[in-house]
Q: What sequence folds into this?
């Protein structure tokens, strides 16, 4: 098979082929071939059914979202209360230590004085 | 569904037939939660949605999926419809953008070979190469060939060629439909034509070499 001869013929054909004109012809062909606008039977019913099936979970979604928000705020409030409890218990522990010391020194003051006198 | 009831007029016997709700009334009803009011809109505009989807879909089953997706999106985003432009324009923007997304999804499946041209397609190309006027643009082979070429274009190029050259829309219209700026549409149109010319050259080369 003579590849060179075929290649030459091909390049001649290609050079003859006007790409701009080919473009114009093919675009004209596409314009002439307008797509059909037919709609499948009861398409609107199908869309409505799809929408209805989507709307129901949306109502449930609203509940789920609400419950999640409530749960998060509950956890927040619980954490805040916990922190407050820890802080107040720490401060009250410190003040109770002072109270014990004061009580000790008051009760034992007379004993201390007696010891010092002796 | 929001629907005007029949009205009694003094001096006129009988009742007037109930008037069809307007588009604005239907949209308002849907926004208030009456999903059934969406059905007349689907019925009215589906032919346009289907015709547009058929320009970009690969198979008829895909056309159904595109149209369905367009309507579901339209329902979800109906709140963003401000009513300044006709509902049809808003819907067509959504349709074109959905089709573009579908084209981008197909991008990986594009193959740039023309080795499997059918006999009529080969014949049409040969006739065109011999004498361009002998190859009619209303022949089935030409329609098949442009279909093949369009499938090989990048999504952007295909969208621009379809809107600008096949549907004969203005640059401004394309900018509104696609959401691209006017200069961007012009740049993409220039690139799309170049890309198409390259594909046509490749088709010719593969046929004759």
A:
């Amino acid at each position: 098979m003579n590849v060179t001869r075929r290649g030459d013929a091909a390049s001649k054909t290609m050079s003859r082929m006007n790409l701009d004109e080919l473009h114009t012809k093919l675009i004209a062909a596409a314009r002439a071939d307008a797509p059909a606008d037919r709609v499948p039977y009861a398409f609107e019913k199908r869309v409505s059914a799809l929408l209805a099936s989507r709307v129901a979970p949306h109502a449930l979604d609203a509940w789920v979202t609400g419950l999640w928000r409530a749960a998060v705020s509950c956890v927040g409030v619980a954490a805040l209360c916990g922190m407050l409890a820890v802080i107040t218990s720490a401060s009250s522990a410190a003040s109770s230590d002072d109270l014990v010391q004061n009580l000790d020194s008051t009760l034992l003051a007379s004993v201390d004085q007696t010891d010092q006198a002796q | 569904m929001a629907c005007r009831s029949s009205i009694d007029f003094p001096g006129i016997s009988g009742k007037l037939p109930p008037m069809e709700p307007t588009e604005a009334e239907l949209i308002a009803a849907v926004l208030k939660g009456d999903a059934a009011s969406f059905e007349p809109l689907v019925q009215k505009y589906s032919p346009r949605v289907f015709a547009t989807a058929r320009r970009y879909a690969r198979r008829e089953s895909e056309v159904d999926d595109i149209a369905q997706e367009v309507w579901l999106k339209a329902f979800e985003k109906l709140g963003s419809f401000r009513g300044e432009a006709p509902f049809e324009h808003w819907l067509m923007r959504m349709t074109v953008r959905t089709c573009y997304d579908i084209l981008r999804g197909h991008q990986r499946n594009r193959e740039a070979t023309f080795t499997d041209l059918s006999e009529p397609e080969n014949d049409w190309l040969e006739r065109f190469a011999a004498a361009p006027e002998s190859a009619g643009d209303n022949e089935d082979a030409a329609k098949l060939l442009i279909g093949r070429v369009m499938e090989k274009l990048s999504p952007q190029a295909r969208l621009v060629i379809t809107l600008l050259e096949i549907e004969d829309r203005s640059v401004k219209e394309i900018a509104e439909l696609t959401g691209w700026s006017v200069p961007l549409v012009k740049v993409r149109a220039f690139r799309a034509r170049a890309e198409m010319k390259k594909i046509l050259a490749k088709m010719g080369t593969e046929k004759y070499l």
Observations:
- Chain B touches chain A through 49 residues (CB under 8 Å).
